[in-house]
Amino acid sequence: MKQNVLLEKTFEFAVKSVKLTKVMQQENKEYVMSRQFLKSATSIGANAEEAIAAQSSADFISKLSIARKEARETKYWLRLITAVDLHDCSSEIKHIDEITKIITSIILTTKQSTEKK
Questions:
Q1: pLDDT tens column, 21-75
Q2: 29: alpha, beta or left, given left = phi > 0 and alpha = psi -120 to 50?
Q3: How many domains would you assign to the chain?
Q4: 21 Cβ neighbours under 8 A, 6+ residues apart
Q5: Cα torsion angle, 82, 88, 93, 96, sign
Q6: pLDDT tops 80 at residue 1
């Protein structure tokens, strides 16, 4: 089976996000932001997985667009977590930026290929 880079990266990011959430909750007793962050962070990969099973190109683009929105929200939470000194999320921000670029590229490529048909 061919490896899907987006699915691998979003799954890896979700695992790291679960671990970061545990750290924030155990060490900092922070539950509100960590839960919001975890919801958006794990939703990225879930929506990418749904996109793979899309019924049409429009459905595929829609699911990936939701994943991109969740990635943007996740970046917001990472920036906020860093700003309030809960955790230095520099590496997580780089990771989410990479994921966002991949998703955006896939959406644009899919839109271009459907327009040519």
A1: 999 999 999 899 999 999 999 999 999 999 999 999 999 999 999 999 999 999 9
A2: left
A3: 1
A4: 34, 35, 37, 38
A5: negative
A6: no
Answer positive or negative: Cα dihedral of 90, 92, 97, 101.
Answer: positive
What residues make up the domain containing 84? 5-115
DSSP 3: -
Enumerate residues 6+ apart whose C-beta is below 8 A from 115.
none
Task: Record the tokens describing residue 35, joined without a space.
Answer: 């839960």
Predicted local distance difference test score (pLDDT) of residue 81: 96
Instruction: Report the CATH number that the domain containing residue 47 is assigned in CATH.
Output: 1.20.1440.60
Q: What is the pTM of this model?
A: 0.93
Token pair for residue 60?
């595929």
Q: Which two tokens stand for residue 52?
A: 């793979």
Mapping DSSP onto H, E and C, the string for 50-105 reads HHHCCCCHHHHHHHHHHHHHHHHHHHHHHHHHHHCCCCCCHHHHHHHHHHHHHHHH
